[in-house]
Write a structure and sequence with these properties.
6-stranded parallel β-sheet; 4-stranded antiparallel β-sheet; TIM Barrel; 2 domains; 280 residues; Aldehyde Oxidoreductase, domain 3; single chain
């Protein structure tokens, strides 16, 4: 099971989303729905997918109205089919209507990421390679989107610029070369912080290995080139593949011997899984 979401941080994200959507008040609901009217609603999957975001949904409803009762009928990570009820909500009709769109937006977005991640992970069955996400996330939603990747069976790359050294092409250009960049990183990093270097060909790979990089990122290489690179590395560093990986090609990259395959599409291109909230 994926790690639990930090409640305090999730509440902050939800608060920003509700401020954006509700603002000074839900004028339609206030005008149309009588106060104190009770309602019961079901959250229904409109197509198959992997559910992610039910705990976030619950926080949305409780933030709008602490008296709303939210019951998840499945756990995050569950594969559901179209028509399946995944949660029930009971409370004042006004509260349910005001929270509805924000709650569904989170559920649909995160479930889409979890579903796509599951597809990538499934394509690697039987290999040693692991699927990683990237920092190509929606600004302000990284915590939730990386959580959804974990729900789908993937693993998180570094969370931000602060928790891992990844020397990319522009760093190399600014530092004056791979060797200089790694040397400076090694001098400033503590002993537990690994150093990863992005390379685009075998020449750069040799330079990164000579500089004692802990991880090499093979950027936009073909599966054939990755196989040759893995042979060159020969266990001296971990190997990550990145750039242009699709569901159609990910298996070939895994079979080339890579340890990790990072896929930006998990968070920047995952189609939402459609859910609806229906009053009963």
């Amino acid at each position: 099971m994926p790690a639990e979401l930090p409640e305090a941080l999730t509440e902050k994200i939800v608060a920003r989303a509700l401020e954006e959507d509700v603002g000074l008040g839900d004028v339609t609901t206030l005008a149309v729905v009588p106060p104190d009217q009770e309602a019961r609603a079901e959250v229904i999957a409109r197509r198959s997918g992997v559910v992610a975001g039910l705990p976030v949904m619950e926080i949305v409803f409780s933030s709008v109205d602490p008296d709303v009762q939210f019951e998840a009928l499945v756990e995050d990570g569950t594969q559901v089919i179209g028509g399946e009820v995944v949660a029930q909500v009971v409370g004042e009709a006004r509260s349910l209507l005001t929270a509805e769109r924000t709650a569904l937006n989170f559920l649909q977005r995160l479930s889409g990421i979890a579903t796509l991640t599951t597809e990538y992970v499934g394509a690697l069955a039987g290999t040693k390679a692991q699927i990683l996400d990237t920092r190509k996330t929606t600004p302000g939603l990284r915590l939730l989107e990386k959580y959804a990747v974990e729900v789908g069976g993937g693993r998180n790359h570094r969370f931000g610029l602060f928790d891992g050294i990844l020397i990319k092409d522009n760093h190399i250009a600014a530092a004056g070369g791979i060797s200089a960049a790694v040397s400076r990183a090694r001098a400033s990093a503590h002993h537990l912080l690994k150093i990863e270097v992005e390379v685009t060909d075998l020449r750069e790979l040799e330079e990164a290995l000579s500089a004692r990089a802990d991880v090499v990122m093979l950027d936009n290489m073909s599966p054939q080139d990755v196989r040759r690179a893995v042979q060159t590395v020969a266990g001296r560093a971990l190997v990550e593949v990145s750039g242009g990986v699709t569901l159609e090609t990910v298996r070939a990259y895994a079979e080339s011997g890579a340890d990790f395959i990072s896929v930006g599409a998990l968070t920047h291109s995952a189609p939402a899984v459609d859910f609806s909230l229906e009053f009963r």
